[in-house]
Automatic annotation (TrEMBL):
Record keyword DNA damage present: yes
Keywords carried by this UniProt record: DNA damage, DNA repair
GO BP annotations listed: base-excision repair, AP site formation; DNA alkylation repair
Organism (species): Streptomyces benahoarensis
InterPro entries: Alkylbase_DNA_Glycosylase/TA, DNA_glycosylase
GO cellular component entries: cytoplasm; protein-DNA complex
Entry-linked SUPFAM superfamilies: DNA-glycosylase (SSF48150)
UniProt-recorded Gene Ontology molecular function terms: alkylated DNA binding; DNA-3-methyladenine glycosylase activity; DNA-7-methylguanine glycosylase activity
Protein name: DNA-3-methyladenine glycosylase 2 family protein
Length: 301
């Protein structure tokens, strides 16, 4: 069982740094257990499981890994934990952002280096509620993934590209995934080799590479590359809630368009995703004025 330890160069918050990689409660590929974080990934060398634990005594993060992908995961451990991120490049321009930045100085932008791992659940989240997308991801991994290597049999590794492409239509339907989203995932799986190359590109080139696949728009590309590249400027556009949250946090009123949000975040050019992340971490959200969006279930249709 290979191991590795990484010592951050300053304050570090393991859980808030990596929480964006989980896809809701019950995610078969990501879990928090006894204060430790467990991840199951399909690496270029095969399936791998990673267990991460913060060591407050010396400020380090200790990692253990299992499976054919263990060496790949440990080799890239510092990047996953945010070693390539540069939080010092960020300058708060608003009082709320400054307070959140000060309170969350240990949060870094994680970089997984694995495209399909973040792209497929992002496609599942298109135009549906989070609960619907999390349920679909959970069911698909449970039925079509494989047991993750290591001591914890609860974890599952997602299918390889061929496995995603071979999922029959009725299985997508059973998971509540419509034909548009399942078609996008199948096209992405067939282009997996080219898409995975985006992990070594800059943000602009990586975005173009992902958007070359029909069904992958700016929202999906940004949500994917935030995690794959740890890109500080990969701001999510086309989101139903984010402009309202940003507008309310920075002005006390709701911004209703992407254009308004971009105007508010213009002082953070190059760091707009980080600014949005800090605003979300502040917990400042507009009061709810309408009932929660109903959860659909196409599997019952």
């Amino acid at each position: 069982m290979p191991t590795r330890t990484w010592v951050p160069p300053g304050p570090y918050d393991l859980h808030r740094t990596l929480c964006v990689l989980g896809r809701g409660p019950g995610d078969p590929a990501f879990a928090v257990r006894g204060g430790e974080i467990w991840r199951a990934s399909r690496t270029p060398q095969g399936p791998g499981t990673l267990r991460l634990a913060a060591r407050p005594a010396d400020g380090a993060v200790a990692a253990e890994a299992w499976g054919p992908g263990a060496d790949w995961l440990l080799e890239r451990l510092p990047e996953l934990l945010g070693a390539a991120d540069d939080p010092e490049a960020f300058t708060p321009r608003h009082r709320l952002v400054h307070a959140s930045h000060r309170r969350h100085r240990g949060v870094r932008l994680a970089r997984t280096g694995l495209v399909l791992e973040s792209l497929i659940p992002s496609v599942l989240e298109q135009k549906v509620t989070s609960d619907e997308a999390y349920r679909a991801w959970r069911l698909l991994l449970q039925r079509h993934g494989e047991p993750a290597p290591g001591p914890w049999d609860r974890l599952r590794v997602m299918p390889d590209p061929r496995g995603w492409a071979l999922i029959p239509s009725w299985e997508w339907h059973r998971a509540g995934v419509d034909a548009k989203r399942s078609g996008t995932i199948v096209r992405a799986a067939r282009a997996a080799r080219r898409l995975e190359e985006a992990a070594a590109m800059d943000l602009a080139d990586a975005t173009r590479r992902l958007r070359a696949v029909s069904g992958i728009g700016p929202w999906t590309a940004a949500e994917t590359l935030q995690r794959v590249l740890g890109a500080p400027d990969a701001l999510t556009l086309g989101d139903l809630h984010l402009p309202k949250i940003i507008g309310y946090a920075l002005t006390g009123r709701r911004a209703t368009t992407d254009a308004e949000m971009l105007g508010l975040l213009a002082p953070y050019e190059g760091q707009r995703h980080r600014a949005a992340r800090l605003i979300l971490l502040s917990g400042t959200v507009p009061p709810r004025r309408a009932p929660r969006f109903p959860v659909g279930d196409i599997a019952r249709l």
